[in-house]
Design a protein that fits this description.
Blueprint: E1 3-7, H1 14-27, E2 31-38, H2 62-84, E3 90-95, H3 98-108, E4 113-118, H4 123-129, H5 132-139, E5 144-148
Parallel strand pairs: 1-2, 1-4, 2-3, 4-5
Helix pairs in contact: 3-5
């Protein structure tokens, strides 16, 4: 295993996921790739007209907002890489539905292992809401390291 991808979200549990993934990668002397997915970024670029007396804060500068979302995610990954201690850690901000975007990234970049966290939602929540981890487990072609992050 020479290329390890660590998927991080904005949940505080991402620190645990990042640290465990980093330790695995270092032990294997593997390249490390941190990714974060922004879902539905184009949704925010829609210009909203006022309706029912409500003027959306996204009405002006919506393209700027999308750019800020992307920059914020990029900064998050850059800071995470620094926190983990690796100047050679590569980062990528992905767009789209999280499970699909991550699976495509893994395939396109020939990753050997994916490290993801799971928030341990109930089975009912997974059925109703879907779960990025469940989708990836069902469709990935590479090994996974799933880090449980549920707070007791």
């Amino acid at each position: 295993m020479k290329r390890i991808c660590i998927a991080l979200d904005y949940n505080p549990s991402a620190e645990k996921v990042g640290k465990i993934g980093y330790e695995y990668a270092k032990a294997l002397n593997a390249e490390i790739f941190l990714v974060h997915v922004i879902s539905d970024a184009p949704y925010y670029s829609i210009d909203y007209s006022p309706f029912l007396g409500y003027t959306s804060p996204f009405n002006t500068g919506s393209v700027v907002l999308v750019k800020e979302l992307m920059e914020g995610a990029s900064n998050f990954l850059s800071d995470s890489a620094t926190h983990l201690g690796g100047g050679k850690i590569k980062t990528a901000v992905l767009e789209g539905e999280a499970g699909v975007a991550i699976l495509e990234y893994l395939d396109e970049n020939k990753m050997d292992l994916l490290v993801i966290g799971t928030h341990s939602q109930s089975s009912l929540e997974n059925v109703l809401l879907g779960s990025t981890a469940v989708k990836i487990v069902k469709h990935t072609k590479i090994p996974l390291l799933v880090v449980p992050t549920k707070v007791e």
